[in-house]
């Protein structure tokens, strides 16, 4: 494959699209990855993220993260990682560097497939779709990009480079579920990047790679419940995964403090424990700043932002690049290299995430909203499978054009997965006679 003359980190095939662009005849100074960025930002699926739950339900307040602001923060952190690595890591040079526009675009897109009510909505849709091929948020993102959003055959018609950058779990969902023997152990879906119905686009994405590269990228291990889990991911995807973890563990923890789920004093104790593992001056200063914060001060939100900014910078500046294979073994840098976090900082990150899980996600307030959301999705799915006239006009047409139960269920699933939290709540109220949204309680 011919390599791009300006940046040998990417090959010509990375800039290719599955179909011709409808705007290809219009002069445009942007490169293909920058066009991907624009298509995502201007998509309806991206806008809907503003009314979808990140961790804390939309009813709790009006300052905390939604799925949209979370995605924007992931993109900002991912861009910071790219800039830092390009400037400071010997692996990336002037003509062999990470593309910031590509990584930022993929980061903005990585959560497009999440349904209403966060991961609990994902679990509910998977339960509904088990007889029809299952549901998984990452696979739904791939489906949105390649089919649902924009052109009905090509979706947003993204570059192969962008699709590879969101390939966190390079396996089809049906294959990941293939060896399950006990359905009771599999309430949650396995991690996968595409559905069987989207295999054509999935195969197109992997087509330029050698047999050895594809075998390495799609390698799996079996989990105790029988699911198959992939063990590798592309270079840019490893960056976005780190940015996602950092954003979740820091910004959602910041929301937890601002909304009263956690006291500032508890955060000081949480961070201070890890000073013996990490002596970075930035982290030490962050802890010093935390000790001076008072929960009732007007400047709390601003100072928390500064503290978490310092912690995020510490994470970014200490990331490591690992070469898994030589260029002779695996020609593509996007498969032969990966970015990871040192174990001591990984411990800090995981401890932050655990606090969010224990104090926020498992709190009564969040669990009540999650339970109600799951129930709503089950009831919406059942109603629309029994009466397709409840679907939107476009989805009715799609429903009538397909012949199998699995394809009809996928149309219903796509419609519900695209709903915002508030739209799903209002539709449920119209169908089942509830006069008030549970957000009003």
Defining traits:
441 residues, mainly alpha, Hypothetical protein af1432, 2 domains, two-stranded antiparallel sheet, 20 helices, globular, disordered C terminus
Class by SSE composition? mainly alpha
Number of strands: 4
The H-and-E topology, N to C, reads as HHHHHHHHHHEEHHHHEHEHHHHH
Q: What is the CATH architecture term of the largest domain?
A: Orthogonal Bundle
> Could you list the spans in which at least 5 consecutive residues all have pLDDT below 50?
435-441
End-to-end distance:
59 Å
- The residue fraction in helices comes out at 40-55%
CATH 4th-level superfamily of the largest domain: Hypothetical protein af1432
Gyration radius (Cα, Å) is: 22 Å
Instruction: Going across the biggest sheet, name each strand in turn.
Output: 1-2
Averaged pLDDT: 86
CATH class of the largest domain: Mainly Alpha
Q: What is the domain tally?
A: 2
Biggest sheet statistics: 2 strands, antiparallel
InterPro entries: dGTPase, dGTPase-like, dNTPase_2, HD/PDEase_dom, HD_domain, PHydrolase_assoc_dom
Family: Belongs to the dGTPase family. Type 2 subfamily.
Pfam family, one: HD
Keywords: Hydrolase
């Amino acid at each position: 494959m011919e390599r791009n003359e300006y940046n040998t980190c990417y090959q010509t095939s990375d800039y290719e699209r599955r179909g011709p662009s409808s705007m290809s005849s219009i002069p445009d100074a942007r490169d293909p990855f920058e066009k991907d960025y624009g298509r995502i930002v201007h998509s309806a699926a991206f806008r809907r993220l503003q009314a979808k739950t990140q961790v804390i339900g939309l009813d709790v307040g009006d300052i905390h993260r939604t799925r949209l602001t979370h995605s924007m923060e992931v993109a900002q952190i991912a861009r910071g990682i790219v800039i830092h690595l390009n400037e400071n890591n010997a692996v990336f040079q002037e003509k062999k560097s990470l593309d910031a526009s590509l990584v930022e675009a993929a980061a903005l897109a990585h959560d497009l497939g999440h349904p209403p009510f966060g991961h609990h909505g994902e679990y509910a849709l998977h339960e509904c779709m088990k007889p029809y091929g299952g549901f998984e948020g990452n696979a739904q993102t791939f489906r949105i990009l390649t089919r649902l959003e924009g052109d009905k055959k090509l979706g947003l018609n993204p570059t192969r480079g962008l699709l590879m950058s969101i390939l966190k779990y390079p396996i089809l969902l049906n294959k990941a579920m293939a060896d399950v023997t006990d359905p009771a152990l599999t309430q949650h879906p396995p991690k996968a990047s595409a559905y069987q119905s989207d295999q054509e686009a999935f195969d197109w994405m992997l087509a330029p790679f050698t047999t050895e590269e594809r075998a390495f990228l799609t390698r799996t291990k079996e989990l105790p419940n029988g699911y198959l889990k992939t063990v590798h991911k592309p270079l840019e995807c490893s960056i976005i995964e780190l940015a996602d973890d950092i954003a979740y563990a820091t910004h959602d923890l910041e929301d937890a403090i601002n909304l009263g789920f956690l006291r500032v004093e508890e955060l000081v104790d949480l961070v201070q424990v890890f000073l013996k593992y990490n002596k970075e001056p930035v982290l030490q200063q962050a802890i010093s700043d935390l000790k001076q914060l008072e929960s009732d001060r007007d400047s709390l939100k601003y100072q928390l932002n500064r503290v978490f900014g310092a912690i995020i910078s510490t994470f970014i500046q200490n990331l490591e690049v690992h070469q898994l294979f030589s260029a002779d073994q695996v020609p593509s840098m996007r498969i032969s290299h990966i970015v990871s976090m040192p174990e001591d900082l990984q411990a800090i990150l995981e401890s932050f995430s655990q606090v969010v899980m224990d104090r926020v996600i498992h709190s009564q307030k969040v669990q009540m909203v999650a339970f109600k959301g799951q129930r709503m999705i089950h009831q919406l799915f059942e109603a629309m499978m029994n009466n397709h006239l409840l679907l939107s006009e476009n989805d009715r047409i799609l429903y009538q054009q397909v012949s199998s139960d699995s394809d009809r269920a996928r149309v219903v699933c796509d419609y519900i997965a695209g709903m915002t939290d508030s739209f799903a709540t209002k539709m449920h109220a119209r169908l089942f006679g509830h006069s008030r949204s549970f957000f009003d309680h």
